[in-house]
Amino acid sequence: MECGDPVEQVTxxxxxxxxxLVCELARAGAYNGGALARAADIYERMLTDKKTVKFFxxxxxxxxxxxxxxxxxxxxxxxxxLLVSTGANLTHDIIEALGCRHYxxxxxxxxxxxxxxxxxxxxxxxxxxxxxATFESFIQESLSTLDPGHSxxxxxxxxxxxxxxxxxxxxxxxxxxxxxxxxxVADSMIGLQCWLYSQSGKISVDAFSDMRGLIDRCFTAExxxxxxxxxxxxxxxxxxxxxxxxxxxxxxxxxTGDRPDLGGLSGATLDEARSWGKITGxxxxxxxxxxxxxTLPVLVAAVLERMER
Amino acid sequence: MECGDPVEQVTxxxxxxxxxLVCELARAGAYNGGALARAADIYERMLTDKKTVKFFxxxxxxxxxxxxxxxxxxxxxxxxxLLVSTGANLTHDIIEALGCRHYxxxxxxxxxxxxxxxxxxxxxxxxxxxxxATFESFIQESLSTLDPGHSxxxxxxxxxxxxxxxxxxxxxxxxxxxxxxxxxVADSMIGLQCWLYSQSGKISVDAFSDMRGLIDRCFTAExxxxxxxxxxxxxxxxxxxxxxxxxxxxxxxxxTGDRPDLGGLSGATLDEARSWGKITGxxxxxxxxxxxxxTLPVLVAAVLERMER
Amino acid sequence: MECGDPVEQVTxxxxxxxxxLVCELARAGAYNGGALARAADIYERMLTDKKTVKFFxxxxxxxxxxxxxxxxxxxxxxxxxLLVSTGANLTHDIIEALGCRHYxxxxxxxxxxxxxxxxxxxxxxxxxxxxxATFESFIQESLSTLDPGHSxxxxxxxxxxxxxxxxxxxxxxxxxxxxxxxxxVADSMIGLQCWLYSQSGKISVDAFSDMRGLIDRCFTAExxxxxxxxxxxxxxxxxxxxxxxxxxxxxxxxxTGDRPDLGGLSGATLDEARSWGKITGxxxxxxxxxxxxxTLPVLVAAVLERMER
Amino acid sequence: MECGDPVEQVTxxxxxxxxxLVCELARAGAYNGGALARAADIYERMLTDKKTVKFFxxxxxxxxxxxxxxxxxxxxxxxxxLLVSTGANLTHDIIEALGCRHYxxxxxxxxxxxxxxxxxxxxxxxxxxxxxATFESFIQESLSTLDPGHSxxxxxxxxxxxxxxxxxxxxxxxxxxxxxxxxxVADSMIGLQCWLYSQSGKISVDAFSDMRGLIDRCFTAExxxxxxxxxxxxxxxxxxxxxxxxxxxxxxxxxTGDRPDLGGLSGATLDEARSWGKITGxxxxxxxxxxxxxTLPVLVAAVLERMER
Lengths: 309, 309, 309, 309
Fold this sequence. Notes:
The structure is a homotetramer of 309-residue chains.
Chain A: H1 18-28, H2 31-48, E1 52-58, H3 68-76, E2 82-85, H4 87-97, E3 103-104, H5 111-116, E4 119-122, E5 125-128, H6 130-143, E6 150-153, H7 154-163, H8 169-176, E7 180-181, H9 189-199, E8 203-206, H10 211-220, E9 223-229, H11 232-241, E10 249-256, H12 270-276, E11 279-289, H13 292-308
Parallel strand pairs in A: 1-2, 1-9, 2-7, 6-8, 9-10, 10-11
Antiparallel strand pairs in A: 3-5, 4-5
Helix pairs in contact in A: 1-2, 1-13, 2-13, 3-8, 6-9, 7-8
C-alpha cells in the first residue's frame, strides 16, 4: 500500500481551456474528477494507438440531450470504428436529421397536460408528437426501396437509412462507412416501423446476422478499445463481443450514472469485467460516475485538444 | 394543494408478517417506503382485476441474486401473462436449471485473481466458468432438435429451451404456456450460442416475428398492467408495446435503482410515460427507487399474503 | 478467492414474517438484499452482546417520514444506550409530541402555492407552518424554567425538553435516562430558538461540554456497536468518538442512500472506517445502500422477532 | 405547457475554453449538463449583483480532493462574503496549510493493511496519520494564546487559526476578513482538540454566539445568494439563516450527488426550499446532480472567465 503523488489543490485560470482544466483535475486526482482525468489519458492513448479497433457504445437518451453531435463529430474524425447504439438514440437521430427538433422543457410539469398537447417528455426535454409522423413516413418510404423477400442484417438497414439523411449519427456513419450495430432494434420506434413494414411480407430482419462481421472484426483486431456512454445493451454487447476471441479489451472508459452495488451490468465496474476476460488483466480502464451530458463533452473536448495540438 | 392523511409513526411488532409491515409503511406514507406501500396496493389491484393482462419486465442481474425464484413462483400462480426479460437473466436461469450454481462472493477482491481461477464476478456473486461449458452443450444440443432451414421467433426458441428444463423461469413459463419475450437476445450468451449454431446455416431467428403476437395481445386486452423490475430493454419494450394500441397501461409499478435526472428511460418516472400515452392519464402508477433485491421480495410477499387470505 | 455458499433462489410464503423473509434474503445473499440480511445478523449480535455499548445515529428526515416511532421503541426496549441525532429530527419529534402532525403530500406540486398556503414540504410530506408556532412557544416556555446565568450542555437541554413531553424520541429518552447528543444543534429550529432565548442573556450553551460524558462512556465500554441511519453529523460524531480511545467499534451497521464514489463520509463504506481505526480491523460491519424508510423497518422487525422468540 | 428553445447538438472545438463548453451545454440544455449551464448563468448574476451578500456552503470531503484551492481563490477574489463549512474540510485545510499532504491512493485496497501502515483513507485519497500529530500541536499551541476564562465564538477561533497559517481557506478568510462559520465544529478533529484544551478549564466555546453576527448580516442584506457545495450542515445552516428574516435567498446554486427521493435535505431540490420561504418564490435557483469534483471546477472556470473578460 503506497501513497501516490500528492493531491494538488485545483487552480482555476479564467479563460483556461477544457484540457487545461482536466489537467488540473489530474493533479487533484480524487473521486470522479480524478477518474475523468484518467479517462482522458486512457481515451487519448486509445485514439492514438494505431493497432486499436475503437468501439463506441451509446446508451441513455443522449441524442435528445444534444450529445449526438459529439458522436457524429467523432465519426467524422475517424475516432470510432464500430458504433453500438440503442434504438432510441438512432430514432431521435433520424428525427433530428429530418429537421424535426427536440425542445428545452421542464421535468416538473403536468404530463397529463403534455399528453393533451401531444408533447412527449424525456426528463426536461420536450418532443412534439408530429415528429413521429415525419419519422414514420421516412422509414416506410426508405424500406420500400428494399428488395422484397430478402433478409437484412440490422446494420445494413441502418446504413440504408443513413444514406438517405444528410446529417447526424446515421448519416455520418453511412458516409464514412462505419458500421452501426443495434442489437435491440426491435425495442425502438425503428423496430416498430420495420415490423409494420415486414408484415406485408416483403422483408425480414435477422436477429443474428450482424454477429459475423462484428466477431470477425474482433478476431482480426490486434487490440481493442471502448468508450462506453451509459450501460444497457450497448455496453454488454460490446464487452461480450470480445468473449469469443482469445483476448479482451486493452482500453476501456465508461461514463455512467448508475451504481455498482445494485449488481446490474450498467453500473458494474470495469474491474468486474476483468474477471470475465472481457477486458484484459492489465487493461487501462476507468469508470466515471456521473451524468454523461457533463462528462462526455468534457472528456471529448480535452482529448480533441490533445489530438489536434 | 391539500394535506392528506397524517403521517403515522411506524410501530414494529415482533413476528409481524411482511404485509403487516407494508401496511405500517402505508400509514407512514413517505419517501420510498410510502411508494413501496402504494406499489403493493396497485399490484394487488392489478392481480385481482380479471380484465387485466399482466406484463412482467425483468432487467438487472436478478437471477444471479436469487430473485428468479420469485418470478417462477409468480408464473406458477398465474400472476404473469407475458414476461419480457434481458437475455442475461435467462442465461443465468438456464445455468441454475442445469444444476450449476451461483455462489456468495465479495465485491471487493482481485478480479485478476478471479480470472486466473476462472470465476466470473457479478458484484458480490461468483459464477465459476465451468457453468458456461454446461450451458453451451445444453444450448447446442437443444438447437440441434430444430428443423433445419426454418426461421424461428425468439419466444419459440425460449419455449423450446424451457421445455427441456425442469425448474426455473423458462421451465415454468414453458410448462404454463406463458410467452417469454427477449427482444435483445443477441446481446446475451443465449444469443451468442444461437448465432454460432445458425452459422452452420440450419436455422435463422427473426428479430421482429414476436411482435405480432405481442401486439395482438395488447390489442385484445381490455386493460393492461405491468410490474417492471429494473429498466433497460424490458421496461421500454413493454411500454412501447402499448403505443400501437389506442390505450396505455392502467396499472404500472416500477422498481428501479436508477435516477430520473440522467434522462435515461431506466430511471424515468412513470409520470413521464403518461406524456407518451404509454400509460393512461389516470393510470395507477408508482416508482419505488431502491435495490430490487429488497423491494421485490417485500412487494411480492405483501401482495401474496393479501391474495391468499 | 473462494466461492461461499450457493445462492438460493428466494421463496415467498404468503403470510411469512419479516424475519422469515430476511432469512430468505440471507440465503440469496446478494447485493443490498444480502447486505440487509447480514445487517440483521450483526445487529442481533450487537444487541445480545451484554458487554457492548449501543450507539444509534439518526440523520435524514426520518421523523417526518414516520420512522421516529421505531427509535422510540428501541429506546423503550433498552436497545439504545446513546443516541446522536440531527437537530431537525428532534425538532420534528417535538412537533409530533406536541400533537401537531406531518401529512401525506406530494413531491410534484407547486412550492410557490405551498408557500402561499403556509405549508412546508419535505419531499412528499407536508407540514403546516402553524406547527412551528406551537413548537416555538413550547421551547421558549421550557427554557424559561432554566437557571439564568448558567451554561448548559446540549444533552441536558434536550433532556429538559424531553421531560416536558409525553411521547416520542426525546420523551422516551428522558424517561429512560438515555442521553441524546446533538452536536449540530445550532443548525436546527431548536438551535434558533435557544439562541433567541439566550439573547436575553439568561443562559449559555457550551459547544463541547457533552464531550466528556461521551468520551468517558467510550473509554469505559468493553465493546461498542453502532446502528447508523443516514450519514451526516451523527455518523461522523459517533465514529470519531472512538478515535480518542484505544479501540474502535466492534459492530457497525449503516443504512444509507448515498454512494461511496463521491468521497463524502455519508456514503463512505465502513471498510474505509477501518483504516482510521474508527472500527476495529475485525469488526463485523456492513453497509446497506437504499432508502432507510424501507431498510430500517425491515431490519428492526427482523431483529425484534429474533430477540423476542 | 410550452416548448422552449430547440436543443442544439453540442459541437466540440479543440482548444475551446471551459466557458465556451458551458455555453454549448446551455444550447443543448438538457439534464444535468443543462442544469450546470443554468448554474453558471445564475452564479454569474449573483456575483455581479452588487446588492447581494454571497454565501458559500462547503460540505463533502472537498479539501482532500483538491477543491479547497477553488474556495481560497473565490475568497481572494471577493466572491464569498460568508463561508459555512463542515469541520472536516477545515481540519484538512489546516493540515495542507501546515505542509502535510493528501496523496493519490485507491478505493480498492485493504483497509486493514492501511491501518497497519497508519494511513487513513478518504475514498481514493490517502492521508498518513502523522499529519494529525502536526495538526494537534498546531491547534494546542494556537489555543494556548487565548485568554483563559473567556468564552469564544466558533468563528473567532477559526479566524485565530487562520491568522497563524499562510495559505488555504482559513488563512485566506482570516487575511481578507471573511467570517467562517462551522456550527458543527464539535463534530471534527478541530472540535476534539478544542475540547481537550478546554478541559483544562481555560476557555469555553459557545454553541450559539455566532448566530447574532450571521443573522444581523442576513437582516441587513438587500439580497442574498448562495453557492452550496454538497448538503449537510452547511446547506441547512445557510438556508435556515434567512428564515429569521422577512425574505429568502434570491439566487441559489446547489451542487450535490445526493438524490431527492430519500427525503433528506442534502438531496432536496431548491424548489422544496421555496415552500419554506428559504428561497424566494421567484428566486433563480438550480440544482446540479453529480460529483462536485467535476461540477465545481467547471462552474467556477466558466464564471471566472465571464467575470474577467
